[in-house]
Amino acid sequence: MGKRVFFFKKYSPAFCRNLSLNRFFYIFAAQFIKDDHDCNICKMKKVFVHYIIVATLATSAAFAQEPGKITMSRQSHGEVRFLMEGTGKATVDWGDGTTEECSLEETEEVIVYTCSHITGNDTTWIGAKKGGDRSRFYIGDSLRTITITGENITLLECRNNKITSIDISKNAALTELVCSRNQLTSLDVSKNAALTVLDCSGNQLTSLDVSKNAKMKSLKCYTNQLPSLEVSKNAALTELDCSGNPLTSLDVSKNDALTVFHCSNNELTSLDVSKNTTLSELVCPNNQLTSLDVSRNTALTELNCWNNWLTSLDVSKNTALAKLSLSWNQLDAAALNALFETLHSDHLTVKWIRINHNPGEKDCDRSIAINKGWGGLPLK
After folding, report:
1. Cβ distance 313 to 291 under 8 Å?
2. Most buried in the list 109, 195, 370, 378, measured by CB within 10 Å?
3. Residue 235 and residue 366: Cα distance in Å, rounded?
4. pTM (2 decimals)?
């Protein structure tokens, strides 16, 4: 027992109690360091446990000193601007020797702008920006890493900044991330379980894992290079836009809360939306669909499926439909007339339909749709 007391006198009890792993190490050390007949073995055990605890406590202490840390890297000349929201304050290290502290509250800062003219006169006006709205202008193409530290950052919007990498793994409070139109090739959101909104569109992502983000309601990952996308764990999704990727298949059967679904400009050959009964907006043009069943989507107000391989379409169950675009498909005159018959009749709501560049465009009876109050079909 004397040996155990001697060992733990090297560490501050207050320091240990503030770390989540301290109880484990107390038990571990107590079991591992016992009175031993061989003093040399006993000393070796002390040294071994000593190094384990020092290394682990140092790592834990370092992590505790950087709550909510976010890092972003870029290597480009020009302005960087991003918006943060949350509570309390955040510190921004711009990676060029400059550091500043700002408030994350809704308060606004008063900014004085001065513009010099060729005539020699200056124009001065006063503007305002939120406390978490930060910007800096870099000269030269040196690699710079921006470090943001703040425990309660809930929103980060850093779109269109030529960012090449971003690390949000230490910010558990983050609920919204908008990092669109950058140069990201990877994005890890596995540690951000509170995330409800993610917009990473317009990057160069080849994979995206959102299986740990069960609270996510809005996901925009369009215009990337994703060959696959798994959203079965995201039952809370109400908005999904994965357009402009090389997706050949997509399963949204677990996403029954979806109201807005865009999947245009992919390589989809089939699309099952039978489980998405709350869907109000379906946009799926520029794919390879040969059929589309929307009979279960009675809440649809907009359906855009142009430039596919559809030969027929039935919208008889879609009585809320107001916008229908199916240009550049394979519907002949009989198929178009059959479609017109399924359109609901309503002269009080503005509605339009597009059928151009279908084989039956010239020979179909457009008056069937026009007499039901559908526009966009001028008589021949």
Report:
1. no
2. 195
3. 41
4. 0.79
